[in-house]
Amino acid sequence: MEQSTRIKIVLVEPTHPGNIGSVARAMKTMGLSRLVLVNPKKFPHYEASKLAAGAESVLDQAEVVTSLSAAISDCTLVLGTSVRDREVSWPTRDPRAAAESIIQHVASPTHQAAILFGRESSGLSNAELDQCQFQIRIPANPEYSSLNLASAVQLINYEIRMQAINQSTGLDDQAEPAATSMAARQRPATKAEREGFLEHLQNTLVALDFVKVNPPTVLMRKLTRLYNKADLTVEEIQILRGILASVDQKLTPS
User: Fold this and answer.
1) Topology of domain 3-166, per CATH?
2) Name one GO molecular function term (predicted).
């Protein structure tokens, strides 16, 4: 298991599907891919796919669980993010110090770390923070310390990436040969990748009012057969989803 896959980003009861997509994008730009969703209100959802903007692979591989304990049961280090003071003080680290601890911890192949992000409106509960060894506090402006969920994930993931670079461990293979990269894009799409595309297609067709029945079961069954016969590659799936994302953007009121 690669080092990057031993780091989980756990979103606890996220409300807005767009935030999930933005988090996926924030993760992929920093070389992380393991996203866990605890009781998301709406997922999968076309808004998540739209805002992922090329990071659909993170969404397609996201793990959805019904409890926080299920999300972190295999983790040996758990850190929770928080912006507010608690009645009981908690061991606290800033993002840079937390990132250093995480990278050192997952250097062992038997260790896994999780970073918990709470609800957009209220964050993590005290009981959820109790399951963490440390809390991460971003030293934001005390007069306005509320960060967008994806921004908080991006900031902490950046520090993790910088620590990985500084410790010469790396979160991805930056020296990957071009031929290997090309082969990865040309491999056949997985079932999860095809299903992600088809769900995105269905949501877009409904938004376009192309179909009058929701869900359009018969139509989607025919389209599923059509695209399965095409034996789509990863690159082709990405192209098709990019087209759908552009259509979705045009449909969204400015």
Assistant:
1) Alpha/beta knot (3.40.1280)
2) RNA binding
176 pLDDT higher than 50: no
Q: Where do the structural domains in the chain lie, given as residue ranges?
A: 3-166, 178-251
pLDDT digits (tens, 9 = 90+) for 68-87: 999 999 998 999 998 766 55
**Which residue type sits at 115?**
I
> Are the CB atoms for 134 and 93 separated by under 8 Å?
yes
Q: Which long-range contacts (CB under 8 A, 24 or more apart) does 226-234 make?
A: 227/194, 227/197, 227/198, 228/194, 231/188, 232/188, 232/189, 232/194, 232/197, 233/185, 233/186, 233/187, 233/188, 233/189, 234/184, 234/185, 234/186, 234/187, 234/188, 234/189, 234/193
pTM summary value: 0.69
